[in-house]
Structure to design on (325 residues):
């Protein structure tokens, strides 16, 4: 038996239950991991409260991102071996001292990436990678608006967009978060709880508006985010921290300037192993070179997962949060 955090019925942070569970031996194509650090992500709250149904039924072990050491391999595994340091994203099972995952989802960690860094970046950093390089190709001269710029994905994406040569505008919930976002690649910050962010984007860009808006907030920033884009701009809705965007009339995209809109998720961008490895290699490169730092700003013991969710959902965190089993 090992320690884990399970959800028996969907609900608030109080449904996260710290208990002992049996972890089975790895089957065909699977590996067992002794976990050293587990990432906390907003998506964990969607599974916990039922916005996303658990693909494994109930009860399930929460969490979608972790890093650790391979301690056992099942039949037919060629990707990794016992003793390898690895990190991976989903599917569920993350908040636990050990877990079994498909070997095809494990990524070997370079020596210069710690377990804690890896747990703070595999989901958020791979997301930043595909959002900036594939969903919309950001480069020199691009103007980007990133909502929740001081958050987990936010701090990574802002540093990376800046590194690629973009002008980065970030919305944040407080003055402290504005300082942090500025220290992490944001050229301009907007206090979107107090200021009209559309008006501020117009001011900052001299009326030219943005090429792309990365919006992980959802309900509260829609449809205003569309007004931050020039004609033919890209609206990238990649999350729902304030609740999902409700159904809307697609003609809105025409009226707002023949805009493009997409709702991407890492699962699809990294579905093939070769893409998973390419995305990870690019992430390891920018982190290894120091161009992008992974701010692991909150660390909790595994048994305190409930507190970690309370902090995340009350907008009390910055950068990445991890659990230590
Ligand atoms: N599609 C994908 O592939 C993918 C992958 C990873 C993450 N995501 C999405 O990316 C977003 C950020 O994820 P994260 O894990 O890095 O979280 P996070 O940004 O660290 O935390 C969420 C932030 O959203 C802001 N926020 C605004 N309204 C909020 C509300 N009503 N409740 C809670 N927070 C609110 C807060 O920042 P302020 O105080 O500054 O407003 C809060 O700190 C989430 O929507 C997540 O689902 C998507």
């Amino acid at each position: 038996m090992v320690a884990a955090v399970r959800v028996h019925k969907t609900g608030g942070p109080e449904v996260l239950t710290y208990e002992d569970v049996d972890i089975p031996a790895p089957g065909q194509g699977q590996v067992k991991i002794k976990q050293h650090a587990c990432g906390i992500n907003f998506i964990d709250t969607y599974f916990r409260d039922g916005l996303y149904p658990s693909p494994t039924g109930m009860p399930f072990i929460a969490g979608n991102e972790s890093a650790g050491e391979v301690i056992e391999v099942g039949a037919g595994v060629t990707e990794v071996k016992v003793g390898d340091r690895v990190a991976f994203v989903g599917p569920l099972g993350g908040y636990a001292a050990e877990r079994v995952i498909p070997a095809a989802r494990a990524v070997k960690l370079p020596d210069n990436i710690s377990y804690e860094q890896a747990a703070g970046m595999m989901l958020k950093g791979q997301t930043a990678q595909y959002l900036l390089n594939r969903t919309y190709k950001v480069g020199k001269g691009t103007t980007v608006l990133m909502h929740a710029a001081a958050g987990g994905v936010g701090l990574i994406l802002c540093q990376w967009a800046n590194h690629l040569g973009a002008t980065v505008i970030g919305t944040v919930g407080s003055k402290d978060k504005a300082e942090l976002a500025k220290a992490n690649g944001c050229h301009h910050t907007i206090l979107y709880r107090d200021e009209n962010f559309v008006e501020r984007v117009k001011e900052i860009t001299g009326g030219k508006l943005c090429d792309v808006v990365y919006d992980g907030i959802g309900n509260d920033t829609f449809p205003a985010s569309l007004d931050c884009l020039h004609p033919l701009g890209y609206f990238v809705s990649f999350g729902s921290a304030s609740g999902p965007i409700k159904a809307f009339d697609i003609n809105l995209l025409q009226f707002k300037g023949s805009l493009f809109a997409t709702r991407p998720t890492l699962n699809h961008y990294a579905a093939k192993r070769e893409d998973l490895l390419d995305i990870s290699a690019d992430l390891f490169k920018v982190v290894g070179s120091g161009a992008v730092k992974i701010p692991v700003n909150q660390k909790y013991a595994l048994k305190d997962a409930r507190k970690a969710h309370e902090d995340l959902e009350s907008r009390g965190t910055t950068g990445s949060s991890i659990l230590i089993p």
In short: The two ends are 13 Å apart (CA to CA).
